[in-house]
Amino acid sequence: MVENALSGDKWALAKLVSLFEDSRKEIRETRIQVMRAIGSSEKRGKRRQAHLFGFTGAPGSGKSTLIGEIARRLLELQKEKRVAILAVDPSSQASGGSLLGDRTRIAPQTNNQRLFIRSQAAGQQPGAISRHTFSATRLLRHFCDYLLIETVGSGQSEVEIGDFADHLFLLLQPLAGDQLQFMKAGIMEMPDLFILNKCDNEDIARNSLYALRESLSFVQPGEDRPILAASARSGQGLSDLTQTLLKMALQPLKKSQAEKEASYLHKWIKDQFGWLGIEHLQQQFQADPLQIAGSILEERQTNFENSLLEKLHGNGKT
Amino acid sequence: MKEEKRAHLLYNEAGGPTKDRPWIFRTYAGHSNAQASNRLYRANLEKGQTGLSIAFDLPTQCGYSSDHELARPEIGKVGVPINSLDDFHVLFHKIPLTSMNTSMTINATSMWLLALYIALARERGEDISLLQGTTQNDIIKEYLARGTYIFPPAASLRLVAEMYEYCLYNLPHWNPANICSYHLQEAGATPVQELAFALATATGILDLIRQRGKVKAADFARVVGRISFFVNSGIRFIEEVCKMRAFVELWEQITSERYGITEARYRRFRYGVQVNSLCLTEAQPENNVWRILLETLGVTLSRKARCRALQLPAWNEALSLPRPWDQQWSLRLQQILAYETDLLEYPDIFDGNRVIQSKVEQLKSEALQEIETIDNMNGIREAIESGYMKSSLVKSMSERMSRINSAEQIVVGMNRWQEGISSPLLSGSDGGIFTADKKAVEETLAALKKTLQKRDPKRAAQALERLSEAARSGENMVEPSIECALSRVTTGEWAETLRQVFGEYRPLTGIEGQKLSLKSDRLKLLRERTEIFAEKYGRRPRIIVGKPGLDGHSNGAEMIAVIARHTGFDVIYSGIRLTPTEIVNSALEEDADIIGISILSGSHIELVEQIVEKLRAVGAEKHIPLVVGGIIPRSDFEKLKENDVRAVFTPSNYQLVEIMEKILTVVEESKT
C-alpha cells in the first residue's frame, strides 16, 4: 500500500492517512510498519519531505478559497511537485459528528492528480487541533512537497498548530475586529505572516492594514511582522504570497521533525499519564522524550509505556 | 393586456359590480426535445390554456450545450433542451409570437433566451415591440434555493439590470424579471421571510438600476411598473390570503415612499404564482389534489390581491415529472374555479374585515423589520454573499423538518392516518409517472450537430468576441446576445464566454452551524451506535453527501448533512453540481465509508451508473457503498439495486432518524 501511495494512488494514501487518525491502540503496530516501509522506500528512491504551512483564522475569513488558489499556483509553477491540503473543522460537542465542507471551496471542480485534499474533524477534545492532526501530518509529509493545513482559529488552536507547522499564517478580514480577539489569546506573536484577506475594497483594506500594523507594534514593539494584503477573489497579492511560500520552503526548518515529535510526545505523556508520566519522564529520561528508545514515534510510545508500567510494578513489589 | 384595461374598477357605469377577468392559466411544461414540447404546447393551448410557461432542461438553465459532459444525463429531463436558434424555430412552430404571452422559467441564462426569442421574432418578421411575456430572471433565489446560478451575484444583478434597461425601450410589454418568493417557500421560508426577501430583492434591483443611470429619470416610473413577482401559495390559505394582501400594501408603500412613484398603475403589485409543492406527499398522492385546490384559494379569493397568472403542480409531483394528463387535471381546476363559480363577480370580500386586517398588519410589520435588517447589511448582495439569507432558510427548513418528524406538524397520510386503501391512480401501466423518451435525446444531439455544421463559423466567432467585449466594458449585452443567436451560437458557448469574464460562483452552503431540534430516544440510541462504531473502527463513520449533475435543489442533501452530523457522523458535504469523477475522487481521498447522493431531476439511473463505473475502476465498489435520495419512482428501485445501490430514499422517507439508522446499517454491513 505504501508503494502505491508513493506512486500517486490516492485511495492508498487516503487509507494510510486513516491509519494515522485511528484511535485504536492495536493500530500502533501497523503505523510502525508503515513508517518503516516509508523509510526503506525513501532510502531506495526519491525522498519527499514537505514543508508544513499552517493557515488559521476566524470562520469566514476566506481560508479555504485562498488555500485553493495558492495550491493551484504552486502546482502550476512547479510541475513535478505535489501538494496536500489538510482541512480541519470542529466537531460537535453534543453529537461528536462534524460538518466538513471546506473541500468544495478549496478546489472547485478540479481533479488534479498532484493535489490531495483531506478533511479532518478536530474531535471532541478541547482545542481545535487534535492529536491526530499532527499524526496525519507525520504521514502526509512523506507524500507531498507542500503540506497546507487549514484550521479554524479558536484562539487555542494556533498555539498547537504553531508547534508543528513550519510556517504559520494568520488570516484576518478587514473590519472584522479579529485582531483584538487574537491579541487577547496571546496569539499575535506567533504567525510568520499576517494575511489581510478580502481586500477587494481598497479604502476599507487600507484602513484595516493601518489598524493591524498599529496593533502589532503595540503587541511587539520593534518587531516587524510582515503583513500581506490579498484578495482570493481578485487575485491580488496571491503571486506574492506564493513566492513567499516558495522562499520559505527553501529555508531550513526552525524545528526539526525530531523536535516536533518530542513536543508531541511530551503532550501525549501528560494527557495519558498526567503528572505520574511527567515525573517518570524526568527521572528516567532526563525530561527529554528523544531519550526514549526507538526511532519511530510509536516505538517510543510503546517503550515509554513499558518503562512506566515496569516502574509501577516494581514499586508495587516493595 | 394593457394595464389600464385591467378590471380593477369595482362598479360599472350602471352601478353593478364589474366582473373580474380571469387570470392567465399556465402549466409549467416542456420536456424531451423541442418537437415534443411544441406538440405539447399546441395541445395545451387547444385545451384552453391561455399562455405558455416554458420549462427548460437543466443544461439550458445552467449554460451548457447538450454535448457537454455535465449535460449528458440531464438532457430533456426537467424541461426542453435549447441549444440554438434552430431549436427555438421548432419549439414555436405554428405558435404566433406576437399574440402569445410566454413565460420562460429561466434565470442565469435569461438574457440568452430572450435574445433567442427576439431573434426568432426578427427572422419571422414579427414586430418585437409587441412581444409579451416574462423571463423569470430572478437570480437571487437561485443562490438561495434552486441552484441554477452561474455567475457571482454582482454580475448576475448586472445582467438583470441590463435586461430592464433594454426592455424598457424595446420590449415594453415584456417583464424582464419575476422576483421570486415561490422557491423560498419551497425551501422552507416562512410568510414573513417570503415577504421580506422578495421585497428586498426588488428594491435591490431597482436601486441598482437607479444607480446605474442608464434609464432616464422620466422613464424610471415605468421601470418600477415593470417589476413583477412570482410567489407561492401554501396550504395555510387564510394566512396566505393575508400574505398576499400584505404584499400589495407593502409594495404600494415602497413604490411611493422609496421611489416617489405617483401613478397608481405603476404601484400595483403584479404577480404570478405556482402553488406550494413542498407539502405534496408521495404517500397517498391522491390527497394532493385536495391540497392543490386549497392552496389555490390563497391567491384567488381576495380580488385586490389576486394573481395575474396561476400555475398548478400536478398531483404526482412527489413521484416524478407529470404526464400531460396530470397537467390537464390541474388545468381543469383553474377553469372550473374561474368559469363555474361566482368568484370573479364580487369586489374584494375581505376589505374591512378586522381579523384579516390585524393579521396583515402583523405580517407587514415583521416583514419591514426583516427588510431593515437586510438594508443594514448593505443590501441584498451582501445578504446573499454573507450566507445570511441562505442560513435563515436552512434554519426554517430544519425547524419544519423537526416539527414534521416529531409529528408536531401534521401531514395527512404521512405522519398521521397512514393506513388506507391504495390508490387506483397509480396502477396504470406507466405506474402513474412520466418517463423521458431516450430517442428524443439522440434527436436533440443530432440537431445540435447539424446547427454547428451549417453555421458560418466566422460570424459566430465574431459575435462571441463582441459579447465578450461588451461584458468586459460594461456595455449592455442584449444586442450582442441577439447577434449571437442569429449567428447560431450555442447556449454553452454563450454561457462559457461570460463565465470567462465573470467567473463561476460557489456560494456558502448555509448549513454551517445548523441544528435540528430532534430529541428522541431513537436518536440517543443511534448516537450510541455511532459511538460503538467509532470505538470499533477507530474513527467516526464518514459520509460524502453531495449532488451530482445539474439539479440544484439542495434542501434534501442539506437536511441529510445536518442530521448525519447530529447523529455523530463526520460529514463531507460537497455541495451541488458535482461530476461523478469529483464525487468518487472525494470519496477516495477522504477514505469515506459511504456515499450519499441526492437527485431530483430524474437522471438518477445515468448518474448512478457513472459513479459505480468509476468506483469499480479502482476496486472500491465493495468498500464504499452508495445510497441515493431524491425524486425516484418506485419502478426504478430495481434498476438502482442492480447497480449496487444499497438504499433509496424518497420524499416518503421523511423520518430523518430512520434514514440515518439505515445509513449506519449499510456502513456496518459493508465492513463485514
Structural features, described:
The complex is a heterodimer of chains A (318) and B (672). Chain A has 318 residues and is of the alpha/beta class. Helices cover 50% and strands 14% of the residues of chain A. Chain A has 12 helices and 8 strands. In chain A, strand 7, helix 9 and strand 8 (227-229) form a beta-alpha-beta unit. The longest helix of chain A is centred in the last third of the chain and has 29 residues, at 257-285. Chain B has 672 residues and is an alpha/beta fold. Helices cover 49% and strands 10% of the residues of chain B. Chain B is globular, with a radius of gyration of 25 Å.
Main attributes of the structure:
heterodimer; A: 318 residues; alpha/beta; seven-stranded parallel β-sheet; 12 helices; 14% strand; B: 672 residues; five-stranded parallel β-sheet; 49% helix; disordered N terminus
Poorly predicted runs of 5 or more residues of chain B: 1-7
What's the Cα radius of gyration of chain B? Answer: 25 Å
Structural class of chain A: alpha/beta
Beginning-to-end CA distance, first to last residue of chain B: 68 Å
Oligomer type: heterodimer
**What is the distance, rounded to the nearest whole angstrom, between the alpha carbons of the first and last residues of chain A?**
48 Å
Tally of extended strands of chain A?
Answer: 8
Amount of beta strand of chain B: 5-15%
What's the SSE pattern of chain A? Answer: HHHEHEEHEHEHEHEHEHHH
Q: What's the shape of chain B? A: globular
Number of strands of chain B: 15
The chain pair with the largest interface is: A-B, 33 and 39 residues
Q: Assign the structural class of chain B, choosing from mainly alpha, mainly beta, alpha/beta, alpha+beta, or little secondary structure.
A: alpha/beta
**Main sheet makeup of chain B:** 5 strands, parallel
Helix content estimate of chain B: 40-55%
Order of adjacent strands in the largest pleated sheet of chain B? 1-10-9-8-7
What kind of sheet is the major sheet of chain A? Answer: 7 strands, parallel
* Stretches with pLDDT under 50, minimum 5 residues of chain A: none
